[in-house]
Design a protein that fits this description.
By secondary structure, the protein is mainly alpha-helical. Helices cover 66% and strands 4% of the residues. The model has no long low-confidence stretch (mean pLDDT 82).
Amino acid sequence: MKKALAVFKKEWRDMLRDRRAMLTIFSYPLLGPAMILVMLTLFAGLEERRDNPTLAVAGADQAPVLIEYLERNDVDIRRVEITEAPTEVPEGSNALLIIDPDFKAKMQAGLQVELVIYGDMSKKRDAITISAVRRSMRVFSATVLETRLIARGISPDIANPVDLDVADLSGSGQIGRSIVLLIVMFFVLNPFVTGISLAVDMTAGERERHSLQCLLAQPVSSLHIAIGKWFVISLFSLISVSLAVLLQGVALSFAPLGQLSISLDLSVSTLGSVLLILLPLCLFVPAIQLWAAMFARSFKEGQMYLSLLLAAPTAVAVLSNFSDDQVEGGMTLFPIFNEINLIPEVLLTGDIDYSQLLLPASISLLFTIFAVWMTGRKLAQESLLDS
């Protein structure tokens, strides 16, 4: 291993001299947490400043009880007069509700009343207003029906034999899950982003500069060269991921998570657990990137190959979000799947079962060894000496 260590020292010095590579490596963990903090702050501000939907109502005097009920359900009412069939919603309103002039008489007679609500469903705000009014109308109608049945000596349960309540056990809403997934993706993508420039420069870049041929001419086996190069990328990935986890924890401590109904455990032990989960990925991803970059003949070609690898964690995140049954099975034993599956649980609860890391980490290590060995075999081919 002394020869592999000599290769490591050589590549380490070369990378430290490359200011562009250093900027690429450390810009991601430095700027990423700040961008997420700004995004969460802006999103919380939008949630706080979100206005109630505004509903223009024609004939509001005919239904004072209904108008009062809508106002209690956070719907702003604007009374308007309509003399002809409407073609658009009055300015300053999100929808228009026209109440039948005989509304009060029909309600007293126990008859059905037909109401019409106008709005532009292509506009998001109008669609939200109409949906809110429809929900309120259904509850109002059910209340009126219950009152009519009681007045006739009939139990309201006859009209509603089954009452279903929904209890959300997720612990956080859809917005919370999306934000946690965003944070997890920031962590998982870190080794991929860090290793791109390093892996390409150590393979296709050195091949273009003809320095790889000089290295292969030394009394060092191709496997030792592969190990030395892989260790450099892995060490930089580990440093970058550690910095990202630390800075992200600090940034989230200033984020308005309470306004977004999100509760995260940001203790030192939790951040350490997240780093431990990401450790196998810091070893696996550089090995795969180094192997893939060996097939490139130019720096640009190598960047293209490794940029395609960025699609892998994105696809896994989408699959994890929509296919819970699959992810909870054997797929969690594989790299990327395991990290995306465990990190949200650790951030939300602060608990981790370390026995869940042993088998996935072992499988990831096997893939890493295989990729480094294949890189060594690729370095041993004479085709690499071609220009």
